[in-house]
Amino acid sequence: MIRRFARRLGKSERGAALIEFAIAVPVFLALIFGIIEFAWILNGHITLTGAAREGARLAIVSEYTGKTDDEIKLVIKNHARTFQIEDDAIRINPDDGEGVVKIEEAKLPLLVGIFPFIDNPHLINNTIATMMEE
Predict the structure, then answer these.
(1) Residues in the chain with pLDDT < 50?
(2) Which pLDDT score is estimated for 99?
(3) For residues 128 and 104, is the Cβ–Cβ distance under 8 A?
(4) Residue in 75, 88, 82 with CA at minimum distance from that of residue 122
(5) Contact call for residues 80 and 106 (beta carbons, < 8 A)
(6) What is the pLDDT of residue 11?
(7) Within a domain: residue 56?
(8) Domain boundaries, position 84
(9) CB atoms within 10 A of CB 58
(10) Domain membership flag for residue 11
(11) What is the pTM assigned to this prediction?
């Protein structure tokens, strides 16, 4: 009787698809969520660089437009809305450089946040943009 049960158990393929599905789905979901998280962080880097560039552009033309440093910081923070940026983390014209903006620290909240090796919020340090007056 045990032999007959063992033979039937060895030949049966019922449930094999369920086991394959149970193994494949977590791997597939981790891959998809990893792609989404990587794209979000890459987009954040691009957005922060664009915000620094916009601030540098405003800093170089501030003598003509009359923009103050606080107004430039507000424009930078509005351009990078998804980030948490403190006012003192934005340096405008450090070391008397004209048209230089340095964002020392910006925090990007993650979308998925399930990966333990990626800090949430993701910290981006020292984004610098420079514009030169012609």
Answers:
(1) none
(2) 82
(3) no
(4) 82
(5) yes
(6) 62
(7) yes
(8) 19-130
(9) 21
(10) no
(11) 0.77
The three-state (H, E, C) secondary structure of the chain, written as one string: CHHHHHHHHHHCCCCHHHHHHHHHHHHHHHHHHHHHHHHHHHHHHHHHHHHHHHHHHHHHCHHHHCCCHHHHHHHHHHHCCCCECCHHHEEECHHHCCCEEEEEEEEECCCCCCCCCCCCCEEEEEEEEECCCC
pLDDT score, position 76: 93
Instruction: Give the number of other CB atoms < 10 A from CB of residue 115.
Output: 14
Structure token digits, residue 99: 């048209």
pLDDT of amino acid 35: 94
Q: What does the CA dihedral 58, 62, 68, 69 come to, rounded to 10 degrees?
A: 50
How many domains are contained in the chain?
A: 1
Look at residue 13 and tell me if it is in a domain: no
Domain contains 77:
yes
